[in-house]
Amino acid sequence: MTSELWTVLVLLLGALLCFMLNKPRADMVALALLVLFPLTGLLSVTETLAGFGNPTVILIAALFVVGDALVRTGVVYRLGDWLVKTAGNSEIRLLILLMSSVALLSSVMSSTGVVAVFIPVVLSVAARLQLAPGRLMMPLAFSALIGGMLTLVATPPNMVVNGELMQSGMPSLHFFSFTPIGLVILLLGIGYMLLVRQQLVAKEVSNQPRLQRLTLADLAKAYCLTDREVRLQVAGHSPLVNQPLNALALRSEYGINVVAVERPEKLRTLLLVATGQTVIQQGDILLVDLADPNLNVMDASAILGLTTLPLSSSYFSLHAHELGLAEVAFPPESALVGKSIQQLAFRSRYRLNVLGIRRHGQALSQVFVDEQLQATDTLLVAGNWQDIQQLHQQNRDFLVLSVPAEIDEMTPAAKKAPHALACVALMVFLMVTNLVPAVIAVLLTCLLLGACRCIDLASAYKAISWPSIVLIVGMLPFAQALQQTGGIDLLVSHWLALMGSASMHAILAAVFILTTLLSLFISNTATAVLMAPVAIALANAFAASPYPFAMMVALGASAAFMTPVASPVNTLVLAPGQYRFGDFLKIGTPFTLMVLVVSVLLVPWLFPLYPNQ
User: Fold this and answer.
1) Cβ atoms within 10 Å of 425's Cβ, excluding its own
2) DSSP states of 193-249 as a string?
3) Which residues are registered as beta bridge partners of 448?
4) Which of 63, 62, 76, 65 is nearest to 414 (CA)?
5) Which of 326-335, 431-440, 483-492, 595-604 has the highest average model confidence (pLDDT)?
6) For the chain, how big is the Rg over CA atoms in Å?
7) How many angstroms separate the CA atoms of 588 and 559, rounded?
8) Are strands 269-273 and 306-309 parallel, antiparallel or unpaired?
9) Beta bridge mates, 82
10) How far apart are CA 550 and CA 158, in angstroms?
11) Is the backbone of residue 288 left (phi > 0), alpha (psi -120 to 50) or beta?
12) Which of the pair, 585 or 185, is modelled with greater confidence?
């Protein structure tokens, strides 16, 4: 071996050791590599930094933006709400729908982001069905990983492998090249989880109390809102039609405080948080907070042309992604103390409704619009989550005491959900038909999402996982350095010496196993960067098609089922599911072997080793 190859191997082993110890951070290691390659003379500065202009890297960064747009517009949360509604009380139906939905979402957006969004949904459903969260958390993680096997853009390793294929002069894989294999593995995963779900429950459940954030339900209970929520539909003859709320005096005359308006449209129901300028239309459904739970709403409804509708649960829970609550107090220098709610003009000035006052720890039960505020009072306000966040800037007159946990699930662009779905559908169409390169299709989608206001520029930059991008860019030079110094040729020659007489299926299995084992210790993206050129060189040594070898690398990199640290997805569900390290080993190892068998059987069939024979 040459001195240059020894230098590359030392850098590689040093990087792998840092990745395994997680000290320093992986992106810092990648940055160090970008400095060391030119300093050691292995690569030029241009060659080392070429990754920043790599189409695969741009594609991965742009897909982070697409995924965040689906979260901001509420598409992901609506799918979670549908899951809760459709599953009912059936654990089997819930598990099937959960794994299918998560895999579907993970095929077009970050699996880590999908799992982070679904964890509170799953915890809520588990509590409602009186199930241990552990029975659902591991299926959640496994389905997200399987989602990475469904499409070309589902996970960075797929795109890294595809980029290596194109760099070697081969045509690109198609958007749905992975789908037949991924669907079989998904069905296998659902069946496997249905069989082993009894083993997913931790034997010892921690009894230590955990600090939990307040929820909407907690705040509603503290201010006695539970019995005051009503839904009223506006009839065609109602005197409210075509009138703005600030001209109606509903609160002072009838004790009716309109919090929000559900406006039915052709394909969806639009939620409008009530402001003084909100104009009532025929057919609107008013979400009302009564000033007094004993108020006879029937008399007011008859006068105002309103019909009472059933309310299955709190409308704050039903619209938690858009409609929020917060508790505020007054700092000593506040100029609002001594004024009434009516004088504050809260709705007109801050676009928020005051729903309750607590005085000396007790919620006031009477009509309080003319009640003078005291320095020790706290207010419960309702409105759009974005307007609630703006209260933090009003630090002279307000002090925000409590913001419920549901603020993490807010959807600031909920009205743009149809636009986001249309943009993603266009992206898939362009990628399936190959009308434009994949990176152009995704960048065009990002531009359209911005133009449709599904995401703003600041959020787009924030959505990109820059540590992941830096990691990929820092690892890409290894492939070129190993190629130039003869490292890949040396590894392939040793591989041929060990397995030269083995069957091609055994060699493909070895590629899968080596990739999977390596991804247990370093990120699956870094694994793909290292293994893809080796697999393609190995295919060339056997005069075989590189596609099946490349596919085994991509599938093996996504098969991170065996340890909780093999993927961020597994790490996320470790605590909520109350799992131990051994639980993943016990459940994940058999399933990894099943994925290996499916891959070895299906990949050569779908991607022939010798297509010209």
Assistant:
1) 11
2) HHHHGGGGS-SS-----------HHHHHHHTT-GGGEEEEEEPTT-TTTT-BGGGT-
3) none
4) 76
5) 595-604
6) 29
7) 9
8) unpaired
9) none
10) 9
11) beta
12) 185
- Give strand ranges (E) for 316-469: 323-329, 353-359, 362-363, 378-384, 399-402
Half-sphere exposure of 180 (CA within 13 A, CB side): 11
> Are the CB atoms for 280 and 272 separated by under 8 Å?
no
Sign of CA dihedral 503, 506, 508, 514: negative
Can you give the pLDDT at residue 60?
79
State the Cα–Cα distance between residues 513 and 30, nearest whole angstrom: 25
- Tokens encoding 98: 């959960």
Q: How far is CA 222 from CA 158, 259, 364, in A?
A: 50, 18, 11
Structure tokens at 85: 């509604």
Higher-confidence position of 201 and 513: 513
What's this model's pTM, rounded to 2 decimal places? 0.69
Angle in degrees, CA 541, 543, 548, rounded to 5: 95
- pLDDT tens digits, 426-482: 988 888 787 888 889 989 999 999 999 999 998 899 888 888 788 888 888 887 888
Among all chains, which residue has been given the structure tokens 């992106």? Answer: 27
What is the distance of C-alpha 279 from the center of its chain?
35
φ and ψ at residue 110, rounded to 5 degrees: -60, 125
DSSP string, 253-266: HH-EEEEEEEEE-S
